[in-house]
Amino acid sequence: MRGRGQFVADIRLPGLQDVSFVRSPLAHARIRGIQIPQAYRNSVFTAADLVGVQPIRAVSGLPGFKISEQPVLATGKVRQVGELVAMCVAPTRAEAEDIAAAVVLDLQELPAVHDMLRARDPGAPLVHEHWGDNIFLETNYEVDIASALDAPIKVSREITTARQCMSPLEGRGVVATFDHRLDQLTLYSAAQMPHINRNGLAECLGMEQGRIRVISPDVGGGFGHKGILLPEEVCLAWLTMQRGHPVRWIEDRREHLTASANCREHHYKISVYADRDGRLRGIDCEATVDSGAYSSYPFSACLEAAQVASILPGPYVMPAYRCRTYSVATNKCPILPYRGVARTGVCFALELMLDLVAAEAGLEPGEVRLRNLVQPAQMPFDNITKKHFDSGDYPEAVRRALASIGIEAVRARQRRGEPDGRRIGGGLAIYCEQAAHGTSVYSGWGIPMVPGHEQATARLTPDGGLELRVGVHSHGQSMETTLAQVAHEILGVDAAKVRVVLGDTATTPYSTGTWGSRSMVMAGGAVATACRALAERATRIGAKLLQQDAAQVVFDHGEVRGANGSVSLREIAHTWYRRPQDLPGDVDPGGLEVTSGYKPQRDSGTFSYAAHAAVVAVDPDLGTVEILDYVIVEDGGVLVNPMVVDGQIYGGLAQGIGTALYEEMPFDAAGQPLATTLADYLLPGPTEVPAPRLHHMETPSPYTEFGVKGIGEGGAIAPPAAIANAVNDALRPFGAEIMRSPITPYRIVEALLAAPTEGKVAE
Fold it and tell me: Which residues, at least 6 apart from 354, have a Cβ–Cβ distance to it below 8 Å?
């Protein structure tokens, strides 16, 4: 915010030239020819030039998964609007774009599949012909569903969430250069997972990983969009080695909206079964996720839909369950894990259905939650899909949210009516966020990225400062602050003297990076472990300086103390590095630099959660929605820095409001994206995002350092469900309901016109 950051677009290297790509204007077409003007023959490159470069392959070990090979420049045919066909290089971006505009594509248009449900039909156009269908993966999970089918309450609906763009403040960007002296490719990339990008680059380029260095400088928001290997990264890496000078590509907003990646396009056919007292008997669901044309590296196209089956029941207790999921290929850009991954769609579907159960049972929606949530005395708790909940008091979060929102006052206000004719509604949603997934979780997916021990390096400097080197990366989560706090807690070093080094594969330990709300649990644990080991070494050296046995001294807040006095870390470091003659010969040769790894006692993930409650006013004539009040009661375990947590939740709320009311990437029947600028793709701004009232609960995780849990995704998960329930609560007297996001004015008016009461309040 002070203008001191360095993003990829800020990097200037001698001889740097810019790249623009020729992108497919069609969603599905065979490439019959690429005509390059003679004057630009040496400035334009196609797939035929990239000899030896392998396609991007994101695999999965799940049975039945079909692999898609994504060529970095299209070969044979194109499968989405915006797919890379040719690469153009020039001294400036404007010149490169002029060259790209001069390249002519001869394309034979093919029928496009844009509807994920129609893509499953026999005879649908095939995105990948050799598959024989358009299904990346089909999964099925079932537990005694037959026992629920005779329940006295059964509610069934089809629920849809719109395809979205991630819309970080900074788009993707790449600067590539090759150092012939070191025989090393250096790639500057706005990436959440630099080490994983290096893995993928090495595979595509056929290079040893030691010859590749990935540097991720400051990152202006990630949200999952910057958690994949890009074909642009592979292209520029190849190009700099061919041309001998640095090259750069900076994603513009139109490229981001139309060509890069999307998220969250889900469809649910769901039935919920319950007894008359509102207690759940079971859930039966068929979920489809539009995964786009290709499986992105490393998560693969299976992650989103397959997760739906495992997380749909959430923190609710039920005896029966069935869920079948489909990951479907369409002629759209790939879908990626976005903040909350599958949880936002799952929360939207399940929480809307629970409000319908409440209406059928004649109960308050909050009461239905309280009767079905796992109780604190049951913790740790394995739910029906074997998710292991580590700790928490979910009912208390609901009670606090309802009390804070004043649900009784909301009901009284509804009975009185509004003088302006608007309708008031109150909505509730609760979710759980599995975070810091470990080896035991991801090994079953069989994807190219399975997290193991997270490592950190802690090194005292000769003047008593501390350097921390960690493989996770910061793109707005204040890692530099919170990891320094952890080190201060262990070593007592002033946080201002702690330097956190991030985002460089040459200087940081291997890591799967920042995703899935894992960094504070995993990297925080690794920093704590490394700092404790460093404290042990410093204690032994300090004991030598005090001429005492190590067992007779203690380390306390930056000092080694014994009967003969005390010695500070600064003095210990000064002696170790600069006056080794003052130390005996049998001193520990390991010195004051430690690399150590960390895994939680149980690495099946932590479970943070929150209850969100919203009060809205809906104008039945215009269809507009105003959020009057918003309350969040969250539990992220022990909070290292509450201010950072608040910022994470506020930012997530803004994104969740976008999902609920504004953001949508529509496509026409030809697979053309219809929101190509920010005039078409609506993002919430300051006037659309209220100041929420945020309440913290702290239930420590029994498995992690300090009892921390992941918190980074939670704020974005529940708002669509809470707001939709509030809108439906307002519309219920009309007999109208909305079962899709975003809840636009058009859809509200459409629902009112289609209601049995024809837009009039039912008596």
Answer: 272, 365, 368, 369, 372
pLDDT score at 759: 58
Q: For 192-201, 586-595, 660-669, 735-744, which range has the lowest pLDDT when averaged over its residues? A: 586-595
**Phi first, then psi: what are they for 257, rounded to 5°?**
-70, -35
Q: How far apart are CA 309 and CA 311, in angstroms?
A: 6
DSSP SS3 for 503 = coil
Residue 315 in this model has a pLDDT that exceeds 60: yes
274: confidence class by pLDDT, cuts 50, 70, 90: very high
Rg of the chain over Cα atoms, rounded to whole angstroms, equals 28
Q: Two tokens at 568?
A: 């500070």
Query: Residue 305's closest CA among 349, 256, 257, 259?
Result: 349
Q: DSSP class of residue 715?
A: G
User: Which of 706, 756, 709, 705 minimizes the C-alpha distance to 734?
Assistant: 756
pLDDT for position 85: 98
Q: Which residues contact 220 (CB under 8 A, 6 or more apart)?
A: 5, 7, 168, 169, 170, 190, 475, 476
Residue range 332-391, pLDDT digits in tens: 999 998 999 999 999 999 999 999 999 999 999 999 999 999 999 999 999 999 999 999
Q: DSSP state, 757?
A: T
Lookup: tokens for 179: 């150092």
Q: Which tokens go with 54? A: 């392998």
Decide if 742 contacts 660 (C-beta within 8 A).
yes
Q: Whole-angstrom Cα distance, residue 208 to residue 217?
A: 23
pTM of full prediction above 0.90? yes
3 state SS of 313: coil
Q: 110: how many CB neighbours lie within 10 A of its CB?
A: 19
Residue 396 tokens, joined: 């208390």
Determine the straight-line distance between the first and last CA of the chain, rounded to whole angstroms.
54
Supply the pLDDT for residue 89: 98
**Please, is 121 exposed, middle or buried when counting C-beta atoms within 10 Å of its C-beta (0-12, 13-18, 19+)?**
exposed
- Whether a cis peptide bond, with omega within 30° of 0, leads into 298 is yes
Nearest-angstrom CA–CA distance, 74 and 97: 19
Please give the backbone phi and psi of residue 14, each rounded to the nearest 5 degrees, phi first.
Answer: -60, 135
Alpha-carbon distances of 317 from 103, 172, 374, rounded to whole Å: 59, 42, 6
Which helix or strand (DSSP H or E) is residue 594 part of? strand 593-598
Residue 761's pLDDT is what?
Answer: 63
Residue 231 has pLDDT above 60, yes or no: yes
